Amino acid sequence: MRQTGVGVAFTLLLLSWACSEAHEHTAPAVNPEDSVSMMTTYGVNTLISDSGVIKYRIVSEQWDVNTVRQPSRWEFMKGIFFEQFDEQFHVQAYIQADTAWYFDQERLWKLRGRVSLKNVDGLVFTSEELYWDGIRHEFYSNCYSKLVTPERTIEGTYFRSDEAMTHYRVSNSQGSFLAEDFDDDVEPADTTTTTP
């Protein structure tokens, strides 16, 4: 019995010693680059106004706003559908992409993955990447792009255009053109640069 009492006392001493040492279990600090979004919205269907006039509609499955990351941004990681309206709310153009980022301080959209743009004139642009600069009011891409109009089809690895997609430049291009585009050395209405 005496040995049992000593064994129990020894066990209690070990348990009290094991419990007396506190171990902190802390997670590492969150890096600013890994910060969570300030706002996450699901099932987005919103209208955006410019100078008090509704100009755009954004539809997305998920919209994250992150103001901690530099530069601050809106993220549409599950795709985006974007429409542009005129003053009478007629659709002037639409853009869709698999992923999009809007850098609000620079007013720059970056669209990635199956980017498609169509305007009211029937022009269709497709690429894997497209930038929309809201300060310079232009689109550009450094990836392979395809431009289809009612008159012609142009493909190239560099693309730059105004926001209305009426004046554009495609470099390293190939495509089909109408013969009258080249009559009397008159440049076509839409500027196309071809580099051999």
Keywords:
mainly beta; 10% helix; 1 helix; 196 residues
Overview of this protein structure:
The chain is mainly β and about 200 residues long. About 10% of the residues lie in helices and about 50% in strands. It has one helix at about 1-20; strands spanning about 40-50, 55-65, 75, 80-85, 90-95, 100-105, 110-120, 125-135, 140, 145-150, 155, 160, 170, 175. Strand 1 and strand 2 form a beta hairpin. It starts with a helix and ends in a 20-residue tail after the last strand.
For the largest sheet, list the strands in their spatial order: 2-3-6-7-5-4
Secondary-structure element sequence? HEEEEEEEEEEEEEE
Q: Extract low-pLDDT stretches.
A: 186-191
Number of helices: 1
Q: Between the first and last Cα atoms, what is the distance in angstroms?
A: 100 Å
Report the C-alpha radius of gyration, rounded: 29 Å
Question: What would you call the structural class?
Answer: mainly beta
Overall pLDDT metric: 81
The number of distinct β-strands equals 14
For the sheet with most strands, the description reads:
6 strands, antiparallel, barrel
What is the approximate shape? elongated
β-strand percent reads over 45%
Into which percent range does the helicity of residues fall? Answer: under 10%
Blueprint of the fold:
Layout (H helix, E strand, L loop, with lengths): L1 H19 L18 E12 L2 E14 L6 E4 L3 E6 L5 E7 L1 E5 L4 E12 L4 E10 L4 E4 L3 E4 L4 E4 L1 E5 L5 E4 L2 E3 L20
